[in-house]
UniProtKB/TrEMBL annotation:
Its EC number is 2.4.1.-. This is Mannosyltransferase. It is a multi-pass membrane protein. PANTHER family: GLYCOSYLTRANSFERASE, GPI MANNOSYLTRANSFERASE 3. Alpha-1,2-mannosyltransferase that catalyzes the transfer of the third mannose, via an alpha-1,2 bond, from a dolichol-phosphate-mannose (Dol-P-Man) to an alpha-D-Man-(1->6)-2-PEtn-alpha-D-Man-(1->4)-alpha-D-GlcN-(1->6)-(1-radyl,2-acyl-sn-glycero-3-phospho)-2-acyl-inositol intermediate to generate an alpha-D-Man-(1->2)-alpha-D-Man-(1->6)-2-PEtn-alpha-D-Man-(1->4)-alpha-D-GlcN-(1->6)-(1-radyl,2-acyl-sn-glycero-3-phospho)-2-acyl-inositol (also termed H6) and participates in the nineth step of the glycosylphosphatidylinositol-anchor biosynthesis. It is an enzyme of class 2 (transferase). The gene is Pigb. Belongs to the glycosyltransferase 22 family. The chain crosses the membrane at residues 204-227, 239-258, 291-311, 323-339, 345-361, 373-390. GO terms for molecular function: alpha-1,2-mannosyltransferase activity. GO terms for biological process: GPI anchor biosynthetic process.
Length: 530
């Protein structure tokens, strides 16, 4: 990153520690939209044959780029078969692109070729890669501020960035939001702001385009910044014709070719994603919040105790930085227009916010040391609690499932996750073709008002659903995994079918609805004799 080796080493060490101290789950997407897709791509083919042509993956033979990519995918054994792994409904409907999972699929394949595809390495190496990128993003943010202001201000921005509990919680996760935020930090360091010595139109536009390919909503915070760049640019036609258009065509074209190979047809996933989440607003299927949620809960929680320093920094900062303030306000307003809201959606505004927090600390003078200690202590507790304790059961239970792979009766073993859908990872955290099933909850895209997904049907009457689904004992899975809140309701079924509790795992101190404080693993007694 062009900074002192000591700074880079510090960032790498802290993000490495960060990675090790985050042992909890956040949201299903960190597995189901990244690692599960990558695992299926890398490991779902017979090793004796890696020909994409024989498997019916239809790639255009006349295009040089497609031929090159086909050769690469043949080498990686990236396939479109369904014998090992699972893809969620988003992938069946072309709402997600393969560009981001391809990074992890490549890592998985390298590990396999080196005969190092141990399940723990498959879990931790992708996260370590994210930690490495996060460290470089931290250093890039420092470099930006050092060039815009001075080394002292840069140090305080760097301190605020490393202190942020939400950054600590999120930056080593395999989420598209995480990669979107990292690319935003990289792009910001090259943004041609007046006074910046690092500005490069090509570099920042390429990074923004990559972020948009990975997650189309990444464009939102950049809309005011790109318009500001266009407004101040003297050679406007040159900017559009020789920079914006070529960068856009190359990145979108590459994304199209990658997705063409995987889907077997031309799919513009960015358009499908925006159509589903913005135009049709079907994200409300996963919950809705009032319009003011990001202002009253979202941003205050994500910023935590940085909030007063952010406000103070916005007031104190020179006018030339107002474009960064506009990017934050615009992004929060834009996301407020959508009914479905999550904390992680506004994660990409944090690098902008940390700039103003650091600027605030630099201006404090007298209270600076006290403020720094306050920030450190008030962020340390939530960072450690959310990273080590809150919602850890979803990952801990997979360690128990992994043990079934080492068992001599793996072919007879089967696991049924009777939990809210996607509560746990899947094959990426097991790495063996174990029979596994979970309650599914795809939204209805046909407009059927009477549609009820499998998970809802189950929870409407769990006992009746189980008796109907497993009318014969031969259909029963060897292991059931449930949240503690479900146990009492299905206890008669568990007793009648000969299940006994084999493990109890802590999950959360704040159980809500169908998510209990603990996760229980039940095993059929009859299976113990195998």
């Amino acid at each position: 990153p062009g900074e002192s080796p000591r700074l880079v080493a510090l960032a790498l060490a802290l993000r490495g520690l960060n990675c090790a101290l985050v042992q909890t789950s956040f949201v299903p997407d960190e597995y189901w939209q990244a690692l599960e897709v990558a695992h299926r791509a890398a490991f779902s083919c017979p090793r004796s044959d890696t020909s994409t042509r024989r498997r019916g993956v239809n790639v255009p033979s006349d295009a040089r780029a497609a031929r090159c990519l086909r050769a690469l995918l043949s080498a990686l054994c990236v396939l479109n078969v369904n014998n090992y792994g699972y893809l969620t409904w988003e992938w069946e409907n072309g709402l997600r692109g393969y560009s981001y999972p391809l990074l992890f699929a490549s890592i998985y394949k390298v590990l396999q070729l080196l005969a190092k595809d141990d399940v723990q390495l498959l879990i931790w190496v992708p996260r370590l890669v994210q930690a490495l990128l996060a460290a470089f993003a931290d250093v890039k943010l420092y470099s930006l501020v050092r060039h815009l202001e001075n080394a002292e201000t840069a140090q305080w921005v760097f301190f605020c960035q490393l202190c942020s509990w939400f950054t600590w919680y999120s930056c080593t996760r395999t989420l598209t939001n995480t990669m979107e935020t990292l690319l935003t930090s990289f792009a910001l360091s090259y943004y041609p702001l007046k006074g910046s010595k690092m500005g490069s139109s090509y570099k920042y536009l390429i990074l923004v385009a990559l972020a948009v390919v990975i997650r189309p909503t990444a464009l939102i915070p950049w809309i005011p910044l790109v318009f500001n760049h266009f407004w101040q640019e003297q050679k406007k036609a040159d900017l559009i014709l020789h920079k914006c258009i070529p960068v856009g065509l190359v990145t979108v074209g590459t994304s199209l070719i990658i997705d063409r190979v995987f889907f077997g047809k031309w799919v513009l996933v960015q358009l499908n994603f925006l159509k589903f989440n913005v135009l049709q607003n079907l994200g409300t299927f996963y919950g809705s919040h009032p319009w003011h949620w990001y202002f009253t809960q979202g941003l205050p929680v994500v910023l935590g105790t940085h909030l007063p320093f952010f406000i103070h920094g916005c007031v104190q900062a020179p006018k030339r930085y107002r474009i960064f303030q506009m990017a934050v306000i615009w992004t929060v307003l834009a996301y407020s227009m959508l009914s479905h809201k999550e904390f992680r959606f506004i994660y990409p505004v944090l690098p902008f916010c940390m700039f103003f927090c650091g600027y605030s600390l630099k201006q404090l003078k007298t209270w600076r040391k006290s403020a720094a200690i306050f920030l450190l202590l008030t962020n340390l507790l939530p960072a450690l609690y959310t990273g080590l304790i809150h919602q850890r059961g979803s990952l801990d239970v997979m360690n128990h499932v992994q043990q079934l792979c080492n068992n001599s009766y793996q072919s007879q073993a089967s696991v049924f996750f009777m939990m809210p859908c996607h509560s746990t990872p899947f094959y990426s955290h097991v790495h063996c073709p174990l029979k596994m099933r979970f309650l599914q909850c795809p939204p209805d895209l046909t407009g059927n008002e009477s549609y009820i997904d499998e998970a809802e049907l189950f929870y409407s009457n769990p006992l009746a659903w189980l008796n109907e689904e497993f009318y014969s004992d031969t259909l029963l899975p060897s292991h059931l995994i449930i949240f503690s809140v479900l146990e009492q309701e299905i206890s008669s079924f568990l007793t009648l079918k000969g299940y006994e509790k084999s493990a109890t795992l802590f999950h959360t101190h704040v159980p809500q609805g169908r998510v209990g404080s603990h996760i229980y693993v039940y095993r059929r007694k009859a299976e113990m004799n195998h």
